[in-house]
Every structure is written in structure tokens, then in C-alpha cells.
Amino acid sequence: MKDILLVDDESGFLMSLAEGLKGIYGANCHVFTAQNGLKAVEILKTISVDVVVTDLHMPEMDGVELIAYLKKNYPGISIVVMTAYSDTDLEKIIQNRRVKYIAEKPIDLYDIADKILAA
Question: What's CA 110's distance to the chain center, in Å?
């Protein structure tokens, strides 16, 4: 069973992705959501997860800051990044933090489900 934390500031997209993953994985996963990095940190203080799927551009604490926090405080958590921005420098930053996968928006539900399963 996978415990997944989805982090994105677009609430409609976040809920749609959560429901889609529940539809694919069924009872084989628990999906939690947060609308920014700070809320994700609060959630991680109360539950443990296997995978964090995060957007990069968010208010309060962005995805790059969240990834740095996760690597320092939760090194065992796998990370999948979602982004609508294709930037070579940004990809280098992400890869230096040992991110498992990068998924470009618009997200293909089955593609990201495969990446989460592999993470």
C-alpha cells in the first residue's frame, strides 16, 4: 500500500488528481493533499507517507523549498515533481536533490500513477 501526499496550489487540479489516483489504485493507497509546502510540512508532522508529489510554483513555500526540507528531514520519502515549466536550470536543481521523476503538466493520470508506483 502506498501513502501519497499531493502538493499543489490549484485546488481543482489537486482534488481531480487525488480522485483519479484513488480510482486507479483503489484500496491500495491513501492520498493526502496540501495546497502549499507549508501545509505539506504540517501534514508530514502527523502522518508518514511513501511518496510526495509536488508542484514547483506555489505560494508560501514552493516546491524547491519543500524538496530541500524533505531531503533534510525525511530522506526516505520518494519525490515526484509536477511542473508546467520546462527549464534546464530548474531540472538540474531538482535532479541534484535526487528527485525520482519529473512529470510535465498537463499531467497524464496514468503516467503519473506509474511514476508514483515506481517511486
Answer: 15
Q: Where are the domains of the chain?
A: 2-118
Whole-angstrom distance, CA of residue 102 vs CA of residue 67: 13
Residue pLDDT, tens place only, 6-40? 999 999 999 999 999 999 999 889 999 999 999 99
| Low-confidence residues in the chain, pLDDT < 70 | 85-98
Distances 2 to 22, 64, 84, 95, 105 between C-alpha atoms, Å: 11, 23, 25, 23, 23
pLDDT, residue 11, reads 95
Query: Kindly report the CA angle at 3 between 9 and 43, in degrees rounded to 5?
Result: 50
Task: Provide the CATH topology of domain 2-118.
Answer: Rossmann fold (3.40.50)
